[in-house]
Amino acid sequence: MRYTEDDLKDKTILITGGAGFIGSNLAFYFQENHPDAKVVVLDSFRSGETLSNGNLKSFGHFKNLIGFSGEIISGDINDKDLLLDLEVNYDFDYIFHEAAISDTTAQEQDLMIKTNVNAYKDLLDLAVAHNANMIYASSAATYGNAESPQRVGREAPNNVYGFSKLSMDHLSREYMKECDINIVGLRYFNVYGAREYFKNTTASMVLQFGHQILAGKNPRLFEGSDKILRDFIYIEDIIQANIKAMAPNTSGIYNVGTGKARSFQDIVDILQKELGTSLECEYIPNPFIGSYQFHTEADIATTKEALGYAPAYEMEEGIKAYVPEIKRIYETEVK
Ligand SMILES: NC(=O)c1ccc[n+]([C@@H]2O[C@H](COP(=O)([O-])OP(=O)(O)OC[C@H]3O[C@@H](n4cnc5c(N)ncnc54)[C@H](O)[C@@H]3O)[C@@H](O)[C@H]2O)c1
């Protein structure tokens, strides 16, 4: 089902995590395609506070929203007073829930469960109170090193981040049973594309290798990178899945990938081809063995069937489409 401009006229859309990578892309999608919809972004932005691994606690950045003219709220989804205020003062039709501790290497189990799982429950209650559709970000991290192709129902998370996303899915199923609202969980695989730069070292390796190559540095890969395969998915296909998940009677949990596993070496090779370079690669030991995914490949049969989702970008096409933005970010932010 495709939404025409009129379908979302006078609808109110909440995007949590809207100053982050995927959330900000969603915000612009609605602004550009549904100018009469009211879009509210809620994000804690970045405070400078770090986790024990040295990464920022939240990656939201105002630059992801330059040009966005909807309402912006700086706030924490763990703040119950704020959620009560949203319940009383707004009437949401759709909630796109992207806010999370999105760092798969974060070690703070308490903060992870509180933010990713407990706050999500409060947002589900908000959705129920408003009779709103809930579309939330789950993750391929729920699968850990489960056998490929990964299927919903065969999870084996190997870090607390993946565990938290699986807990969100369990919670969602309870709400699907007991409540009338439409709830869709989207298990994104490895996403790359515009507006990910401010995730720093947690941004995709497509961007990070792209910038290494543009700086004339040898791309640095983990040893055995030709055998570390992931399902890499371009942001446009993530947006497509979210929009298709707005259709009625689509409650469920779905994989969002391309259905193809590609290696980290492939990324470098495609980038070098697009950028016209032939730098030699350096291979370094992988410090994340034990909590690292070595082969992901989404089974997208049910996503296609239930949502009408069809990935439009193979990695060659996604990287080609992304290269001008990789260069722009390099010129404006890195150099
Ligand atoms: N990017 C990927 O490859 C990928 C893959 C699987 C799942 N996901 C999930 O998709 C969602 C979006 O990811 P992303 O890549 O855009 O990451 P991101 O870090 O850019 O976006 C998350 C946003 O949430 C905000 N946030 C964090 N804690 C918050 C809090 N307590 N209150 C309010 N806002 C808070 C951050 O400031 C940030 O802007 C996340 O739930 C993530 O776990 C992403």
TrEMBL record:
It is an enzyme of class 5 (isomerase). Residues 13-257 form the NAD-dependent epimerase/dehydratase domain. The chain crosses the membrane at residues 12-30. GO terms for molecular function: ADP-glyceromanno-heptose 6-epimerase activity; NADP binding. Keywords: Carbohydrate metabolism, Isomerase, Membrane, NADP, Transmembrane, Transmembrane helix. It comes from the Bacteria. Its EC number is 5.1.3.20. GO terms for biological process: carbohydrate metabolic process. InterPro entries: Epimerase_deHydtase, Heptose_epim, NAD(P)-bd_dom_sf. This is ADP-glyceromanno-heptose 6-epimerase. It comes from Sulfurimonas sediminis.
